[in-house]
């Protein structure tokens, strides 16, 4: 089916929907909330991309995936949410048959890219912490590029059959008052399968990675405490070698805390992922015939909110991102009276963070007991 040859049919005309059953105030509220989400999402995601590109101290492996995530969310806000606002405001679809196919294609495609980007960021954290010796081999530049390209091609490629009308079709859904995935002429629909795959697979991957991360970190902290107790119980006077070892341990401990803050930030992104995507997934699977439209509307609002929530998490939970945002807005890194190096130290960019925030840290257990090392078997990648 060639979507460029679509003729104006009933889809292209102004069509009333089940949204008309709701009070105008409720739908106006939904339109205003969606508009607010769109503005915050456009500004926040664009600012994040600019900050990550401008500030070399936060340009690392995770930044590549975060930029991909922000681009997907920016496109979602720019190309999908205006039509959602129109639907809530007018309670109809009046934008033609071609856009009725293109808009849901972009909507689900960008959502897929966002989910896969979050999963890839979590996988990056897992390999960094649980399999540090693999890190330099896995996260080479061409591998990172392939991962990002895969996330985009897979997310949009899964929808090609629906776009061609082979497995469901993109069409107007009168129950929702918008265009979505509808059954094809044979009654087949990809909606349930796509939502289950898009939600369950990333969620399981993220859950498994975080379970392993927390186990490794917990085991590492126990070993470090035992090491510190053994040091305190030794002779009261430290020789030069022991002093240097203690200083290095303190430096690595500070770097580990920075890594753990980044990991907690990604965990917060995952929790927001659950809050934003779980309701719409349940709605699509449990109420595929839309007997409860308000449940779907609430799910869509949460889904839309996912496009603007991640930059907010970055600002709240990570001082380095706050500094990068400030630098992007102020158009320069050094502050008056401070050298660039001192500015970096003041904002958490110590020398130990300059290599990459995701590949710098070795838990240091190799110094405690090389046989018990779970975090690193050699120097971090350059």
TrEMBL record:
PANTHER family: B2 BRADYKININ RECEPTOR/ANGIOTENSIN II RECEPTOR, G-PROTEIN COUPLED RECEPTOR MOODY. Pfam families: 7tm_1. This is G-protein coupled receptor moody. The chain crosses the membrane at residues 26-53, 60-85, 105-123, 144-167, 192-215, 262-282, 294-316. InterPro entries: GPCR_Rhodpsn, GPCR_Rhodpsn_7TM. GO terms for cellular component: plasma membrane. Residues 241-252 have a biased composition (Basic and acidic residues). GO terms for molecular function: G protein-coupled receptor activity. Belongs to the G-protein coupled receptor 1 family. Keywords: Cell membrane, G-protein coupled receptor, Membrane, Receptor, Transducer, Transmembrane, Transmembrane helix. Residues 231-240 have a biased composition (Polar residues).
């Amino acid at each position: 089916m060639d979507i460029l040859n679509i003729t104006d049919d009933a889809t292209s005309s102004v069509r009333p929907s089940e949204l008309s059953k709701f009070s105008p105030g409720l739908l106006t509220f939904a339109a205003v909330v969606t508009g607010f989400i769109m503005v915050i999402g456009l500004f926040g995601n664009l600012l994040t991309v600019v900050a990550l590109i401008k500030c070399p101290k936060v340009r690392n492996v995770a930044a590549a995936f975060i930029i991909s995530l922000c681009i997907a969310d920016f496109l979602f806000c720019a190309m999908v949410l205006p039509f959602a606002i129109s639907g809530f405001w007018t309670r109809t679809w009046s934008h033609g048959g071609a856009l009725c196919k293109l808009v849901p294609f972009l909507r689900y495609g960008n959502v897929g890219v966002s989910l896969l980007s979050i999963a890839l960021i979590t996988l990056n954290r897992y390999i960094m912490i649980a399999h540090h010796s693999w890190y330099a081999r896995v996260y080479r530049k061409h591998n990172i590029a392939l991962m990002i390209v895969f996330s985009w091609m897979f997310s949009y490629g899964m929808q090609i059959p629906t776009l061609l009308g082979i497995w469901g079709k993109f069409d107007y859904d009168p129950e929702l008052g918008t265009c979505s995935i509808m059954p094809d002429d044979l009654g087949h629909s990809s909606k349930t399968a796509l939502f289950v795959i898009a939600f369950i697979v990333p969620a399981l991957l993220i859950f498994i990675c975080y379970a392993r991360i927390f186990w490794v970190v917990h085991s590492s902290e126990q070993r470090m405490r035992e090491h510190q107790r053994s040091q305190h119980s030794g002779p009261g006077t430290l020789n030069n070698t022991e002093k240097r070892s203690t200083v290095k341990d303190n430096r690595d401990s500070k770097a580990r805390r920075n890594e753990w803050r980044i990991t907690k930030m990604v965990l917060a992104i995952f929790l927001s992922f659950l809050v934003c995507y779980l309701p719409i997934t349940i709605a699509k699977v449990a109420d595929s015939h839309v007997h409860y439209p308000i449940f779907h509307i609430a799910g869509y609002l949460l889904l839309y909110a996912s496009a603007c929530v991640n930059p907010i998490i970055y600002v709240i939970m990570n001082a380095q991102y706050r500094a990068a945002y400030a630098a992007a807005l102020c158009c320069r890194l050094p502050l008056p009276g401070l050298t660039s190096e001192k500015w970096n130290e003041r904002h958490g960019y110590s020398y130990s963070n300059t290599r990459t925030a995701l590949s710098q840290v070795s838990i240091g257990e190799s110094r405690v007991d090389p046989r018990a090392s779970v975090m690193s078997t050699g120097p971090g990648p350059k």
